[in-house]
Amino acid sequence: MVGGDASDEIEYLYASIPQIRNIFSVTGKIGEGTFSSVYLAIARLRSGEDCKFALKHLVPTSHPARIAAELQCLTVAGGEDNVMGVKYCFRKNDHVVIVMPYLEHDCFVDVLHSLSFQEVKEYMYNLFKALKRIHHFGIVHRDIKPSNFLYNRLLKKYALVDFGLAQGTPDTQIELLKVLHTKKQGSCSQSHLHTNSGNIPVPREVVLPSSTKQSVKRYWSHSQINPGKSGKEGLLGGSLQRSVFGERNFNVHGAVIHEVSAEKNIKQSKITEAASRKVAARKPVTTKNTSGVVSRKGATGSLTCDCYARDQVCAICLARARQVAPRAGTPGFRAPEVLTKCPNQTTAIDMWSAGIIFLSLLSGRYHFFNAGDDMNALAQIMTIRGSRETVQAAKQFGKAVLCSKELPAKDLRELCEGLRRVCTSVTSGTESDVQKQRAALQTRMIEKLDGWFVGETSVTPPANSSESAMSSAGSMDIGQSGWDRVPDEAYHLLDRLLDMSPTTRITAEEALSHPFFKDLW
Ligand code: ADP
Ligand code: MG
Ligand code: ZN
Predict the structure, then answer these.
(1) What angle do CA 242, 243, 246 make, to 5 degrees?
(2) Which of 262, 282, 319, 353 is the most buried (most CB within 10 A)?
């Protein structure tokens, strides 16, 4: 999994924090996200032994409060129960590097089709263990997906990583998540992270600078007076920033446009705030309804929107203030309450994402949902979980979801077994060919499901798959690997994870006690 020639980037890392060079030999790049680059490094311990580490170099535009919170999640909740820990942290100016123990891991797509049913069970059990731990600390991870849950198949080791989007529950034990919780969203300035330890590696216990809390406060009061003081204001509009809320939202400055264009794509579903169908308008508003009729409403009159139950969004609705709700995460893994912008999101959103991973493991389809925007993502969920169920659940969190066509909920076993059968029908070719063919066939099958509009069909070859040798790794032996007798408990658990309603969705602790896992207790 170690990337090829990354020598320029490694030099940049050394140049950013020169002390790294004195301690580590950085041998390659293992991960690259929008907000970080992760490298493999080796350090000689006092005992003379060589030890591998993962060095996460955060982009300098990351908000200091975010960085501090990510670190605190790792230091407080990490190191146990499949949650990644942290060894050291380095900082120089606006560069921060988090040093973690290295866990060599398999790429999810590479192993997806060869895992035995028992391995899938163990994978899910270990994921729930990690989720139980972080949820106990009041951490909502918000980005649960395979690339953030490292899996070493051979050693049966697992590690949940990447708290870069984490948020706190109202009673979180992570102090720095409370800071993020209470602040209003806004554009964030550059780094003003104050540490007391300079760049000296410190043992785990004291990794978080004692002044961090204060420095976060100082940062805020400072930035409110003089935003963009760092002299890099030019970067603000155009650069990708991980906001203090952790939202990987590139539309902080163009949010309204984003909303509008998303709504244009609505074909069968539409979400509105149930409570705000009638709005009082102060100014006269000109609106145009779907049949082209223009209506004018008086200055003080109550304004009823024109688009209810229509397949277009009216001007009144387009003019509504954007509802601010956390929307972090990766589209295909977002829970319905995230997609509909429910403001009170809980640890249940991580359980939904775990359910999507389970759905991939049971069906052999990855990515399971491939919609490019939230509306289509919701429509895809609806085709699997049913339109009535979706409407009902959304009502609970104050949203009205309209669907022009009644879509029945699918039987999960039938769905997964059907998709899995497609996989077994393709076996010849290189590893990457096989994966492409399988994905294409599955997509064709799933497109037949009513309401599944696939804007951008993704037939994604895995990023790191090697074309050679491995072609048998993806082959499936249904009989031997236990896939011929998947118990009902598996689909019952899947159903409980993909509960449309966050209030009744199964928790991590409950999932661990689910009869599906009885042989692992
Ligand atoms: P990002 O916020 O950019 O997504 P992550 O923390 O998820 O960063 O790390 C990106 C990738 O780097 C991971 O998907 C994984 O492949 C690799 N990685 C991260 N931490 C470790 C680690 N401790 N050991 C091995 N690989 C790691
Ligand atoms: Mg990640
Ligand atoms: Zn309307």
Answers:
(1) 75
(2) 353
In this prediction the pTM is 0.77
pLDDT at 120: 98
Measured by CA distance, the residue closest to atom 23 of ligand 1 is 102
Please tell me the distance between residue 183's alpha carbon and the centre of ligand 1 in angstroms. Answer: 27
Predicted pLDDT at 201: 34
> Residue holding tokens 């806004």?
186
* Phi, psi for residue 273 in degrees, rounded to 5: -80, 120
CATH 3.30.200.20 location in the chain? 4-178+197-249
443 in Cβ contact with 457 (< 8 Å): yes
Find how far residue 129's CA is from the centre of its chain.
Answer: 18
Catalytic residues: 143
Q: Which residues pair with 83 in a beta bridge?
A: 160
Relative to the alpha carbon of 290, which ligand is closest? 3
- Residue 296: burial class (beta carbons within 10 Å; 0-12, 13-18, 19+): exposed
Ligand 1 atom closest to 1 (CA): 16
Best CA proximity match to 516, nearest among 497, 493, 495, 499: 493
Radius of gyration of the chain from Cα atoms?
A: 24
Only one residue has tokens 């949902």, namely: 369
Which is the closest atom of ligand 1 to the Cα of 34? Answer: 3
| pLDDT, tens digit, 9 for 90 and up, residues 222-281 | 222 232 333 332 222 234 556 665 555 433 232 222 232 333 333 444 555 554 444 433
Q: What is the DSSP letter of 461?
A: P
Superfamily covering domain 4-178+197-249: Phosphorylase Kinase; domain 1 (3.30.200.20)
Q: Which helix or strand (DSSP H or E) is residue 338 part of?
A: helix 336-339
Low-confidence ranges of the chain (pLDDT < 50): 183-239, 249-269, 275-302, 454-473
| Ligand sitting nearest the alpha carbon of 246 | 1
Report residue 320: phi and psi, to 5°: -65, 150
Ligand 1 site, CB within 6 A: 30-31, 33, 35-36, 38, 54, 56, 84, 100, 102-103, 147-148, 150, 161-162, 164
Question: What tokens were used for 78?
Answer: 């990490």
* 294-304 pLDDT per residue, tens: 333 333 334 56
Could you tell me which residues come within 8 angstroms of residue 47 by beta carbon, excluding any fewer than 6 positions away?
none
How many A from CA of 28 to the centre of ligand 1?
A: 13
Cα Dmax for the chain:
81
Give the pLDDT confidence score for residue 476 in this predicted structure.
58
